[in-house]
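Morning, I've got a small favour to ask if you have a moment. I owe you a coffee for this, so here goes:
>
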Amino acid sequence: MARVSQEHLDARRRQILDGAAVCFARNGFHATSMQDVLKEVDLSAGAVYRYFSGKEELIAAIAAEVLETVRGTLEQAARESSPPTPDVLVPRALATMRELRPATLDTGEWLFPRLMIQVWTESTRTPALTAVLADGYAKIRTAWGGVAQSYKDAGLLPEDADVDAMARAMIALVQGFAAQIALFGDIPPQVLADGTRALMATGRDT
């Protein structure tokens, strides 16, 4: 029997994860069965179970990927020599996520924000997923803390500024905008930029 290449194995695993993500974003974790996933990816049960033991393992893998996409986006921003201010960074982070995870539902709706909400919801009831989410969020905080520190190093923040607190606030902006996209439809990047810039200007002398 011919040996299956690693590239083939990786591609098949990717196919399963992408198909499952569509199912979960469309109908939620609990309303999606493994039969739904099998139908979406057009594979036999044996082919899918070779890679994942069941729905819970699929959910955990997808959750980890969602968090890794967010973390990688923020780490990239932290490495820039001239740090983009939040009104640039927040829309850019969402745009980068869209580039990395561009899949849409049949309606044309961007899949990723809906999947984010599903992951958050499921983590409140599944301890194993809570652990995955907590670990991923800690890494995201570290990455965006690096962005906040770069603001301080560039003289854009006072020396006594709490970079972790700022990291949490900027993460909340991205999460909040993603939630709005998932619930109410897409938001033009300029709206994200203008809204964040207005927040940054609050309290300044005019």
Observations:
- The two ends are 75 Å apart (CA to CA).
